Protein backbone atom coordinates (compact mmCIF):
# COMPACT_ATOMS: atom_id res chain seq x y z
CA UNK A 1 0.00 0.00 0.00
CA UNK A 2 1.37 3.40 -0.98
CA UNK A 3 0.42 6.88 0.13
CA UNK A 4 -1.35 8.88 -2.55
CA UNK A 5 -1.00 12.56 -3.35
CA UNK A 6 -4.73 13.17 -2.89
CA UNK A 7 -4.81 12.35 0.83
CA UNK A 8 -5.73 8.66 0.50
CA UNK A 9 -3.91 5.38 -0.13
CA UNK A 10 -3.28 3.22 -3.17
CA UNK A 11 -4.03 -0.40 -2.25
CA UNK A 12 -2.42 -3.42 -3.85
CA UNK A 13 -4.92 -5.42 -5.90
CA UNK A 14 -3.81 -8.74 -4.40
CA UNK A 15 -4.51 -7.43 -0.89
CA UNK A 16 -8.05 -6.38 -1.79
CA UNK A 17 -8.66 -9.68 -3.58
CA UNK A 18 -7.53 -11.54 -0.47
CA UNK A 19 -9.55 -9.26 1.85
CA UNK A 20 -12.78 -9.92 -0.07
CA UNK A 21 -12.16 -13.67 -0.45
CA UNK A 22 -11.63 -13.25 -4.18
CA UNK A 23 -14.73 -11.01 -4.44
CA UNK A 24 -16.94 -13.91 -3.37
CA UNK A 25 -20.73 -13.82 -3.56
CA UNK A 26 -20.86 -14.21 0.22
CA UNK A 27 -18.93 -10.94 0.57
CA UNK A 28 -21.09 -8.98 -1.85
CA UNK A 29 -22.96 -6.13 -0.15
CA UNK A 30 -24.92 -4.94 -3.17
CA UNK A 31 -24.68 -2.84 -6.31
CA UNK A 32 -23.34 0.71 -6.29
CA UNK A 33 -23.86 3.42 -8.89
CA UNK A 34 -21.50 1.73 -11.34
CA UNK A 35 -20.68 -1.74 -10.04
CA UNK A 36 -20.78 -4.25 -7.17
CA UNK A 37 -19.63 -3.51 -3.62
CA UNK A 38 -17.83 -6.13 -1.51
CA UNK A 39 -17.14 -6.42 2.19
CA UNK A 40 -13.57 -7.24 3.14
CA UNK A 41 -11.05 -7.31 5.96
CA UNK A 42 -7.43 -6.30 5.49
CA UNK A 43 -4.57 -8.14 7.18
CA UNK A 44 -4.38 -5.22 9.62
CA UNK A 45 -7.91 -6.07 10.79
CA UNK A 46 -9.52 -3.02 9.21
CA UNK A 47 -12.90 -3.76 7.65
CA UNK A 48 -13.48 -2.26 4.22
CA UNK A 49 -16.10 -1.90 1.50
CA UNK A 50 -14.57 -2.28 -1.97
CA UNK A 51 -16.59 -0.57 -4.70
CA UNK A 52 -15.72 -2.15 -8.03
CA UNK A 53 -16.00 -0.42 -11.40
CA UNK A 54 -17.76 -2.51 -14.02
CA UNK A 55 -15.48 -3.19 -16.98
CA UNK A 56 -16.12 -1.41 -20.30
CA UNK A 57 -18.35 1.26 -18.81
CA UNK A 58 -17.39 4.71 -20.07
CA UNK A 59 -20.02 6.36 -17.90
CA UNK A 60 -18.79 4.35 -14.94
CA UNK A 61 -15.20 5.42 -15.61
CA UNK A 62 -16.17 9.09 -15.67
CA UNK A 63 -18.15 8.68 -12.45
CA UNK A 64 -15.24 6.80 -10.86
CA UNK A 65 -12.86 9.62 -11.70
CA UNK A 66 -15.39 12.16 -10.46
CA UNK A 67 -15.92 10.35 -7.17
CA UNK A 68 -12.24 9.74 -6.44
CA UNK A 69 -11.30 13.36 -7.07
CA UNK A 70 -14.24 14.65 -5.11
CA UNK A 71 -14.34 12.52 -1.97
CA UNK A 72 -10.60 12.84 -1.39
CA UNK A 73 -11.26 16.51 -0.64
CA UNK A 74 -14.25 15.93 1.69
CA UNK A 75 -13.98 15.25 5.41
CA UNK A 76 -17.04 15.20 7.68
CA UNK A 77 -18.43 12.82 10.29
CA UNK A 78 -21.64 12.41 8.26
CA UNK A 79 -19.89 11.53 4.99
CA UNK A 80 -18.56 8.05 4.32
CA UNK A 81 -14.76 7.98 4.61
CA UNK A 82 -12.75 7.10 1.52
CA UNK A 83 -9.69 5.10 2.58
CA UNK A 84 -8.13 4.81 -0.87
CA UNK A 85 -8.35 3.25 -4.30
CA UNK A 86 -7.11 0.17 -6.10
CA UNK A 87 -6.32 -0.45 -9.77
CA UNK A 88 -5.14 -3.35 -11.89
CA UNK A 89 -4.13 -2.19 -15.33
CA UNK A 90 -6.91 -0.45 -17.24
CA UNK A 91 -9.55 -3.07 -16.47
CA UNK A 92 -9.91 -3.18 -12.69
CA UNK A 93 -10.66 -0.01 -10.72
CA UNK A 94 -11.99 0.16 -7.17
CA UNK A 95 -12.72 2.66 -4.43
CA UNK A 96 -11.97 1.46 -0.89
CA UNK A 97 -14.25 2.82 1.84
CA UNK A 98 -14.61 2.34 5.55
CA UNK A 99 -17.06 -0.49 6.18
CA UNK A 100 -20.40 0.43 7.71
CA UNK A 101 -21.59 -2.25 10.14
CA UNK A 102 -25.30 -1.56 9.70
CA UNK A 103 -25.42 -1.37 5.91
CA UNK A 104 -27.76 1.26 4.46
CA UNK A 105 -30.79 3.11 5.77
CA UNK A 106 -33.27 1.45 3.40
CA UNK A 107 -32.36 -1.91 4.96
CA UNK A 108 -34.11 -0.72 8.14
CA UNK A 109 -36.83 1.79 7.37
CA UNK A 110 -38.60 -0.32 4.73
CA UNK A 111 -38.61 -3.51 6.81
CA UNK A 112 -41.18 -3.85 9.59
CA UNK A 113 -38.98 -6.15 11.67
CA UNK A 114 -35.63 -4.37 11.25
CA UNK A 115 -37.36 -1.00 11.44
CA UNK A 116 -38.16 -1.69 15.08
CA UNK A 117 -34.44 -1.17 15.79
CA UNK A 118 -34.85 2.47 14.80
CA UNK A 119 -36.84 4.18 17.54
CA UNK A 120 -37.82 7.84 17.30
CA UNK A 121 -34.62 9.02 18.95
CA UNK A 122 -32.48 7.21 16.37
CA UNK A 123 -34.63 8.29 13.43
CA UNK A 124 -34.49 11.95 14.40
CA UNK A 125 -30.73 11.60 14.99
CA UNK A 126 -30.32 10.17 11.47
CA UNK A 127 -32.43 12.95 9.91
CA UNK A 128 -30.31 15.59 11.64
CA UNK A 129 -27.03 13.86 10.73
CA UNK A 130 -27.96 13.78 7.03
CA UNK A 131 -28.83 17.48 7.23
CA UNK A 132 -25.43 18.22 8.80
CA UNK A 133 -23.66 16.27 6.05
CA UNK A 134 -25.52 18.14 3.31
CA UNK A 135 -24.87 21.48 5.00
CA UNK A 136 -21.16 20.70 4.93
CA UNK A 137 -21.29 19.75 1.23
CA UNK A 138 -23.19 22.88 0.27
CA UNK A 139 -21.61 25.49 2.56
CA UNK A 140 -18.48 24.40 4.37
CA UNK A 141 -16.44 22.00 2.25
CA UNK A 142 -13.61 23.29 0.07
CA UNK A 143 -15.97 22.92 -2.88
CA UNK A 144 -19.72 23.45 -3.12
CA UNK A 145 -20.99 19.96 -3.89
CA UNK A 146 -24.48 18.95 -5.00
CA UNK A 147 -24.92 15.21 -4.46
CA UNK A 148 -27.79 14.71 -6.98
CA UNK A 149 -28.63 11.16 -5.85
CA UNK A 150 -29.54 11.44 -2.18
CA UNK A 151 -31.76 8.48 -1.19
CA UNK A 152 -32.15 5.90 1.55
CA UNK A 153 -29.81 3.35 -0.05
CA UNK A 154 -27.04 5.98 -0.23
CA UNK A 155 -27.17 6.65 3.52
CA UNK A 156 -24.89 4.21 5.33
CA UNK A 157 -25.10 3.52 9.07
CA UNK A 158 -22.14 2.81 11.35
CA UNK A 159 -22.18 0.58 14.43
CA UNK A 160 -23.85 3.34 16.48
CA UNK A 161 -26.41 4.16 13.78
CA UNK A 162 -24.72 7.40 12.80
CA UNK A 163 -25.65 8.26 9.19
CA UNK A 164 -23.03 8.80 6.50
CA UNK A 165 -23.81 10.05 3.00
CA UNK A 166 -22.23 7.86 0.31
CA UNK A 167 -22.02 7.36 -3.46
CA UNK A 168 -20.74 10.61 -4.98
CA UNK A 169 -20.53 9.27 -8.53
CA UNK A 170 -23.34 11.56 -9.68
CA UNK A 171 -22.22 14.63 -7.71
CA UNK A 172 -21.64 18.02 -9.31
CA UNK A 173 -19.17 20.67 -8.16
CA UNK A 174 -20.17 24.33 -8.21
CA UNK A 175 -17.92 27.36 -8.28
CA UNK A 176 -18.26 29.64 -5.27
CA UNK A 177 -20.19 32.26 -7.25
CA UNK A 178 -22.48 29.83 -9.12
CA UNK A 179 -25.93 29.12 -7.71
CA UNK A 180 -27.24 26.71 -10.34
CA UNK A 181 -26.37 25.06 -13.63
CA UNK A 182 -28.21 23.71 -16.63
CA UNK A 183 -27.59 20.24 -17.98
CA UNK A 184 -29.09 18.02 -20.66
CA UNK A 185 -28.16 14.86 -18.75
CA UNK A 186 -30.49 14.23 -15.82
CA UNK A 187 -29.19 11.78 -13.21
CA UNK A 188 -30.76 10.57 -9.99
CA UNK A 189 -33.44 8.23 -8.73
CA UNK A 190 -37.15 8.26 -9.51
CA UNK A 191 -39.09 9.84 -6.68
CA UNK A 192 -36.26 12.01 -5.39
CA UNK A 193 -35.70 14.35 -8.35
CA UNK A 194 -37.20 17.89 -8.16
CA UNK A 195 -39.36 19.12 -11.05
CA UNK A 196 -37.05 21.92 -12.24
CA UNK A 197 -34.26 19.37 -12.67
CA UNK A 198 -36.43 16.58 -14.13
CA UNK A 199 -38.16 18.79 -16.70
CA UNK A 200 -35.68 21.60 -17.40
CA UNK A 201 -32.25 20.31 -16.35
CA UNK A 202 -31.78 23.05 -13.73
CA UNK A 203 -29.54 21.74 -10.93
CA UNK A 204 -28.70 23.58 -7.69
CA UNK A 205 -28.29 22.98 -3.97
CA UNK A 206 -32.09 23.11 -3.82
CA UNK A 207 -32.08 19.85 -5.80
CA UNK A 208 -30.52 18.13 -2.79
CA UNK A 209 -32.91 19.97 -0.46
CA UNK A 210 -35.84 18.42 -2.34
CA UNK A 211 -34.32 14.93 -2.10
CA UNK A 212 -33.66 15.50 1.59
CA UNK A 213 -37.31 16.38 2.16
CA UNK A 214 -38.45 13.20 0.42
CA UNK A 215 -35.95 11.11 2.39
CA UNK A 216 -37.06 12.68 5.68
CA UNK A 217 -40.67 11.74 4.97
CA UNK A 218 -39.56 8.18 4.20
CA UNK A 219 -37.68 7.96 7.51
CA UNK A 220 -40.62 9.32 9.50
CA UNK A 221 -43.21 7.13 7.79
CA UNK A 222 -41.29 3.99 6.73
CA UNK A 223 -43.11 4.44 3.41
CA UNK A 224 -41.44 4.54 -0.01
CA UNK A 225 -41.63 7.63 -2.17
CA UNK A 226 -42.19 5.48 -5.26
CA UNK A 227 -45.40 3.94 -3.94
CA UNK A 228 -48.92 5.35 -3.79
CA UNK A 229 -51.16 5.70 -0.74
CA UNK A 230 -54.91 5.94 -0.45
CA UNK A 231 -56.58 8.89 1.26
CA UNK A 232 -60.19 9.98 0.83
CA UNK A 233 -60.61 7.36 -1.89
CA UNK A 234 -57.78 8.79 -3.99
CA UNK A 235 -54.21 7.63 -4.54
CA UNK A 236 -51.32 9.98 -3.75
CA UNK A 237 -47.56 9.80 -3.99
CA UNK A 238 -45.78 10.04 -0.64
CA UNK A 239 -45.15 13.80 -0.54
CA UNK A 240 -48.74 14.58 -1.58
CA UNK A 241 -50.08 12.02 0.90
CA UNK A 242 -47.98 13.58 3.67
CA UNK A 243 -49.15 17.10 2.80
CA UNK A 244 -52.81 16.05 2.76
CA UNK A 245 -52.51 14.40 6.19
CA UNK A 246 -50.54 17.33 7.64
CA UNK A 247 -53.06 19.84 6.26
CA UNK A 248 -55.96 17.87 7.77
CA UNK A 249 -54.21 17.54 11.15
CA UNK A 250 -53.79 13.78 10.77
CA UNK A 251 -50.01 13.41 10.88
CA UNK A 252 -50.33 10.39 13.16
CA UNK A 253 -51.60 8.46 10.13
CA UNK A 254 -48.33 9.19 8.33
CA UNK A 255 -45.71 8.26 10.91
CA UNK A 256 -44.49 4.70 11.39
CA UNK A 257 -45.39 4.40 15.10
CA UNK A 258 -47.04 6.44 17.90
CA UNK A 259 -44.98 9.57 18.66
CA UNK A 260 -44.88 9.21 22.42
CA UNK A 261 -43.26 12.20 24.11
CA UNK A 262 -41.65 13.55 20.90
CA UNK A 263 -44.86 14.51 19.11
CA UNK A 264 -43.94 18.20 18.82
CA UNK A 265 -40.50 17.35 17.45
CA UNK A 266 -41.95 14.92 14.88
CA UNK A 267 -44.52 17.50 13.77
CA UNK A 268 -41.68 19.98 13.26
CA UNK A 269 -39.74 17.47 11.17
CA UNK A 270 -42.77 16.76 8.98
CA UNK A 271 -43.33 20.47 8.40
CA UNK A 272 -39.67 21.07 7.53
CA UNK A 273 -39.73 18.11 5.14
CA UNK A 274 -42.81 19.55 3.38
CA UNK A 275 -41.05 22.91 3.05
CA UNK A 276 -38.17 21.08 1.35
CA UNK A 277 -40.42 19.54 -1.33
CA UNK A 278 -42.08 22.73 -2.52
CA UNK A 279 -42.75 23.01 -6.25
CA UNK A 280 -40.69 26.19 -6.67
CA UNK A 281 -37.03 25.81 -5.72
CA UNK A 282 -36.97 29.40 -4.43
CA UNK A 283 -39.59 28.47 -1.84
CA UNK A 284 -37.43 25.70 -0.39
CA UNK A 285 -35.09 26.53 2.51
CA UNK A 286 -31.36 25.99 2.11
CA UNK A 287 -29.69 23.41 4.37
CA UNK A 288 -28.45 26.02 6.84
CA UNK A 289 -32.04 27.10 7.38
CA UNK A 290 -33.18 23.47 7.55
CA UNK A 291 -30.70 22.69 10.33
CA UNK A 292 -31.80 25.78 12.25
CA UNK A 293 -35.49 24.90 11.91
CA UNK A 294 -34.92 21.30 13.01
CA UNK A 295 -32.94 22.22 16.11
CA UNK A 296 -34.57 25.39 17.40
CA UNK A 297 -38.05 25.31 18.90
CA UNK A 298 -38.06 29.11 18.99
CA UNK A 299 -38.01 29.43 15.20
CA UNK A 300 -41.46 29.90 13.65
CA UNK A 301 -41.90 27.67 10.61
CA UNK A 302 -43.58 28.91 7.41
CA UNK A 303 -46.68 27.06 6.30
CA UNK A 304 -45.88 24.68 3.43
CA UNK A 305 -47.79 25.19 0.21
CA UNK A 306 -48.97 22.35 -2.01
CA UNK A 307 -45.87 20.25 -2.81
CA UNK A 308 -44.33 19.33 -6.13
CA UNK A 309 -45.94 16.58 -8.21
CA UNK A 310 -49.23 17.00 -6.35
CA UNK A 311 -51.29 16.57 -9.53
CA UNK A 312 -49.26 13.62 -10.83
CA UNK A 313 -51.59 10.65 -11.08
CA UNK A 314 -50.28 7.06 -11.02
CA UNK A 315 -50.40 5.06 -14.22
CA UNK A 316 -52.20 1.71 -14.29
CA UNK A 317 -48.84 -0.09 -14.15
CA UNK A 318 -47.75 1.94 -11.12
CA UNK A 319 -51.05 1.26 -9.36
CA UNK A 320 -50.73 -2.47 -9.97
CA UNK A 321 -47.10 -2.65 -8.86
CA UNK A 322 -47.33 0.23 -6.36
CA UNK A 323 -43.56 0.54 -6.62
CA UNK A 324 -40.82 1.83 -8.89
CA UNK A 325 -37.23 2.24 -7.69
CA UNK A 326 -34.53 2.94 -10.22
CA UNK A 327 -31.57 5.17 -10.75
CA UNK A 328 -31.86 6.88 -14.09
CA UNK A 329 -29.96 8.99 -16.56
CA UNK A 330 -32.01 11.04 -19.02
CA UNK A 331 -30.81 13.27 -21.86
CA UNK A 332 -33.02 16.27 -22.54
CA UNK A 333 -33.42 17.68 -26.05
CA UNK A 334 -32.21 21.23 -26.56
UniProtKB/TrEMBL annotation:
One of its GO terms (molecular function) is ATP binding. CDD domains: STKc_IRAK. Gene3D superfamilies: Phosphorylase Kinase, domain 1 (3.30.200.20), Transferase(Phosphotransferase) domain 1 (1.10.510.10). Transmembrane segments: none annotated. It comes from the Eukaryota. Residues 23-309 form the Protein kinase domain. SMART domains: S_TKc. Pfam families: PK_Tyr_Ser-Thr. The keyword Nucleotide-binding applies. SUPFAM superfamilies: Protein kinase-like (PK-like). Keywords: ATP-binding, Kinase, Nucleotide-binding, Serine/threonine-protein kinase, Transferase. This is Protein kinase domain-containing protein. The lineage of its organism: Eukaryota, Viridiplantae, Streptophyta, Embryophyta, Tracheophyta.
Amino acid sequence: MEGGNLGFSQYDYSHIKEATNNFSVDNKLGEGGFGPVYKGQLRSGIKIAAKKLEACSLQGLLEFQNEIQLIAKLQHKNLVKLLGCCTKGDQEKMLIYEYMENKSLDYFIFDNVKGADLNWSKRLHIINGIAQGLLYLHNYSRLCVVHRDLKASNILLDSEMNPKISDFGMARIFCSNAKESNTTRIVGTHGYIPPEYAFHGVCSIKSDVFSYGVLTLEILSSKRTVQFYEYNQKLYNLISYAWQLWTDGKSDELIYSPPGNVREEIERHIQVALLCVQENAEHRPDMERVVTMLNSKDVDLPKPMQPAYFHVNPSEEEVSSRSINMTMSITLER
